[in-house]
Fold these 2 entries.
Entry 1:
Amino acid sequence: MTVESLREIRAALGTGILFMVIGGFVFTLAGFGFTAMMGTSCFEGFCAYVPFLYFAPLGLIAGFVLGAKIGRAKARS
């Protein structure tokens, strides 16, 4: 491992974690919006779990991947 590759990894992890937090928050809000659009046709409060079960993990994963790519590209330049 060279110093440059370690810098790339560090930048990718740092930016990835930051974007993961932001993405999780934004997608959770989007999940609440989706739940609000669904109205009261939810089965026994199932819609209350939608933002946390479906949207938040997608936001965490997408945010980390995007942030890692951006951080790695910044470290290379």
Entry 2:
Amino acid sequence: MISLRYLEHRMDRNDQPSAELAVLTVTDDLSTQVTGEHPNVVDLMLRVAAIDGSGFITFEDNPILWARSVHTGYRTPYLYVEITEDTFPQAAAREDSSDNAPAGDR
């Protein structure tokens, strides 16, 4: 599972974001759940620069890599995204190795 918080970047006196707008959760079966008062800030069609250097991707291309990279898609002082939980590292390693395995071994 990976969870992302979409935050309004309006600083208060303690230099903290003032509002959580939405939370995107990608579950182990790659289904999504969006919660919060402003779910429309979550744009799964947004093309982002992948943090692994592989180019631009969409959520449909690779949900986990997209979730880890989505912060690169926002160039605004008013909105930012942070990962609050990521339990996929082991799962990602298994997926990468199974991509190279013969079809009968997957």
